[in-house]
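Appendix C reproduces, verbatim, an entry submitted by the partner laboratory led by Prof. M.T., so that reviewers can inspect both the input and the predicted structure.
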Amino acid sequence: MSSSIDDFIHISTGPEPPVPSSSSKHGVSGAFFGSTHGDRWFTEGIIVQSIRSKYPKHHLTVNPGYACDLLAFANSREDAVYLSRSNDRDGLLERQFIPPRRRYNDEKGGSMGERVLLGCFDYVFQENAFVLYIVEGSDGMMGKTRYNYILVPPKAEGEEMSIEEKTSAQKKTDELLAAGSRWMQELHNEVLVFDQGWWQKNRELWENVQESNWEDVILEKEKKEAIIDDVIGFFDSETRYAEFGVPWKARLPPSSDSSTKLTLFNREE
């Protein structure tokens, strides 16, 4: 007589069911999706290997994506443009709603934003053509990392690059990365605000300050005048700092209030 427990026992000696494969079994996207089944550890190495297999004659440069957002950089320039090569099967995008910074009297505000986790683009900067891969993936215990993989094609399709071609390709890539990295460090109608433990670019504050003046800053008259004299004196003394070899740094403590004051100075200049 069998126990009722036997009805719930199932022993399988056959092979494990195959892991569903991605719709694209080959190429860079196939390598990316194929490495998401639990055996991945070093996404950068996997992608580099796949790209070199797909583009054996191209010149490849790998660049950390956090330091250079090439898509945002191209959107801000007239001499840069890109076109996606990825389709719905090969690419991977995250789309989310970004609420307004201020929700009071703006219940219907906000916008939709997209983040590229896997994408391939034809990219042109100053008439130089590139193939750009943007890939974000997990690397062990370090969390997610994001890299730009920048390819320069050879002059003659299918032929090996000469040393001169490789040098030229690296120079073109370096010029793109240098311009993009400098752009990332600059302020574009923005103000640096120390918020949540780090400095963030804030466009809304910059826009608000454009219509403000010192009369709008609520402070005691003596304190306001002391701040104005202190900041103007600091900027006028740059050469004196250099003369004595002292780092030229502001003494205002980081705060949103400090950002407002400094922005007023910059606007008046």
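Residues 27-185 form one domain. Additional entries are available on request from the coordinating office.
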